[in-house]
């Protein structure tokens, strides 16, 4: 820093408390750094373009754009991913600190802090850059390799993987007991599918990131796919905008179905008490474009108006078909079903819809023995579900919507049977069981 010919490092301080921002600016300027200040997240993202800092002292709780979201956007953009970030916060919660580090922050500085602690972290950051640059220039052998998952990869996270009703107890620890909810996303963009009890945990995570627009796609309005919505925390936070999408139901409109859950005879809080802006949107003609996603849908064979969804981005595809009775009533060997079989005709649109998808998340709810007494309940037998994956030539299958009577050990054996049937059908793809919290990249 003492070289008069060397340009000083630029540091941007983002803090909505003016006294704190001014203090940090004063301390770092005296150390020879070039420092500028902003007071909210939106200003921070704008200032990065003009000021071009090499390091940002970023407060976690910022107006307009939450500090965690600022960090996420910076690291998702190749033009700003190289900027260092020291997250500054008075929150002592380890999950928040871990999340900041996972998103790419160099370090977390807890308030209140001493000037020595501030200086030490800043020096460590710039010393690390200098060390990296030196090792690159000398091509030193044996540099530490720290792999990272690219922010451009699409992901899906399963927050609820049960059908019919939530379950709990020691026999359900591995797979979990929440009903249907999935998040699919890329970078800072994400979409929610279904609002079973799993959406409660997802809502807590979203609330930590601050107000934003949330898109929820509903496969159908049976209880296990909407019963978590009254416990979705963002719905009670001003500033959140929630759009719920679905196809027309057979009787009530979509808003009425959701509102009745919060009727005072069933629930202590009414729909009108939710402080987020909540809109309902009927799906008409696919595809629907949201951000980088093209979203398609197709009706499935299940009581009520039920659809499956397909998400396509950059040529990659993921389909979600939670409730579907494929080859209705069939209990024979699926190898005996030909392409022109009359039994297959009602399902041809769905097979075409799923053709060659990279990832299929779909049910195989009943064993073949169970299915004999469950025909017409709207769910597939294990072998019929395998036939759908084979006929559509899907590349990977995650089995979800587990029956509430199926405990962990039973599901493990059932998965082995799934794999055996797929080999029997000459379609030995990768297949695995979904579990609550499961996160996969595709």
Can you offer a commentary on this structure?
With 442 residues, this protein is of the alpha/beta class. The protein folds into two domains: 10-137, Rossmann fold, CATH 3.40.50; 154-441, Ribonuclease Z/Hydroxyacylglutathione hydrolase-like (Metallo-beta-lactamase, Chain A, 4-Layer Sandwich). 29% of the residues lie in helices and 23% in strands. It has helices at 18-30, 41-51, 67-76, 94-102, 115-138, 199-209, 223-226, 254-260, 348-353, 368-371, 382-391, 408-424, and strands at 10-14, 34-38, 55-59, 84-89, 107-110, 154-160, 181-186, 189-193, 213-217, 241-246, 277-282, 288-290, 293-299, 307-313, 316-321, 359-363, 396-400, 430-433, 439-441. The strands form three sheets. A seven-stranded mixed beta sheet has the order 11-10-9-8-7-6-19. It has a seven-stranded mixed beta sheet with strand order 12-13-14-15-16-17-18. β8 (189-193), α6 (199-209) and β9 (213-217) form a beta-alpha-beta unit. 40% of the residues are buried.
**Total beta strand runs:** 19
Radius of gyration: 26 Å
* Largest sheet, strands/sense/barrel: 7 strands, mixed
CATH class of the largest domain: Alpha Beta
Structural class: alpha/beta
Which oligomeric state applies?
Answer: single chain
Please, how many domains?
A: 2
The CATH superfamily of the largest domain is Ribonuclease Z/Hydroxyacylglutathione hydrolase-like
Architecture per CATH nomenclature, i.e. the level-2 architecture of the largest domain: 4-Layer Sandwich
Helical percentage: 25-40%
Mean pLDDT: 92
Helix count equals: 12
Span between termini? 45 Å
Which strand order do you get reading across the main beta sheet? 11-10-9-8-7-6-19
The CATH topology name of the largest domain reads: Metallo-beta-lactamase, Chain A
Shape: elongated
Poorly predicted ranges (pLDDT <50, ≥5 residues)? Answer: 131-140
| Percentage of residues in DSSP E strands | 15-25%
